[in-house]
Amino acid sequence: MNNKPTFHFFALAAVGVGLSGGDRIFIEFARRWVKWGNKIYIHLWEEGYNITQAQKLQHKNIKFEIINMGIWPKFGFLVNYIARILAGIILGLKITLPKFVIVYSCSDFLMDLLPAFLLKARFRGKVKWVAGWYQTAPSPFIGFREGKRDKAYRLTALFYWLSQMVSKPLILRFADFVLVNNIEEKKQFSELDNIGKVVVVLGAVDLDNIKKYLKQNQTLRDEEPKYDAVFQGRFHPQKGVTELIDIWAKVVRERNNAVLAMIGDGELMNDVISKIKSNKLERNVRIFGYLYDGPEKYRIFTQSKVVVHPAFYDSGGMASAEAMAFGLPAVGFDLKSYKSYYPKGMLKVPVGNLEGFSESILKLLNNEKLRLKLGKEGRDMIQKDWSWDKRAREVISEITS
Known about the structure:
The chain has two domains: 6-204 and 387-399, Rossmann fold (3-Layer(aba) Sandwich), CATH 3.40.50; 207-385, Rossmann fold (3-Layer(aba) Sandwich). Helices cover 44% and strands 16% of the residues. It is built from 16 helices and 13 strands. Helix 12 (319-324) links the parallel strand 11 (304-309) and strand 12 (330-333). Helix 3 (77-94) packs parallel to helix 4 (110-122). The two termini are 19 Å apart. The mean pLDDT is 91.
């Protein structure tokens, strides 16, 4: 008889073709927990399901419950957002639980959080609620920045902040565990932390597949790199993607032929393209769109010298770590969360100092010895402590204890 708990994942917030940090976490947890004998129901809508299948998340003991959103996505982001919240509420009121389960709200967005909360309220003795809280919204007065920034995207920050004004009290009052991205975030839930109910989920990367790829492509590693730097991440206000073009323009003034590879997609894609054109950088920046794990993305990392991560506001960041596993040193702003995430392998610049960021890139490009040394430090750190197997075991051990 299998005494392993059954899980219900709520992931209606997963959207688009890209992969957020929260999406990555629930997919990698599901991939491992199901192999360890647990049955998992994943509740999402069509776009979220497509993301899981692009990541090859399949198992006989994973059952996908796909919510039909009908015509609502055709009416734009806001209508679709509200429709998914309502769909989540209906789920929370409709699902019946014949036995004990663990429910996991994969994000703090209301379409994920409310169904988990409703099940906890309806079946208190049968439900343990694990709430994902992977980033605290910034103050709408400050916006998406931890330092100097010309455009802080305060309206986007306000929308996120208002959502968390609803979700945070529910987590504090009803959740059994909360998963956060870094030690700093634990302060948001000091009451739960005092009784051991806050679990820090540091980042991880797919080390097994990366090692396998590098072993099979030894000759590629010996070739002259095609890209001076690579960026990976969502084209989102947090990530500093438009400022990265300004940074790269400064690099190109010193190195005319420097090429930046950008992996990602998102709401700021048109802004990035416009800035590339206005800076006449069409020959110096290549945009690849979103690339899932695999040879195409790994080839770009293998053929790059440096990874750049110019986020102005971040709770962690696994994107740079994946490139660092290939031996690339990183350059990033000196964010609070990076003290625990990137103690090695990254040159850190005061937040908002675009000139200093470009100078750090050039410092690595002009000094191969330093670049290789810093890259090795980062790679060794990632390979030692950034395994998804390790992360998944740490979390399931805590929440099932």
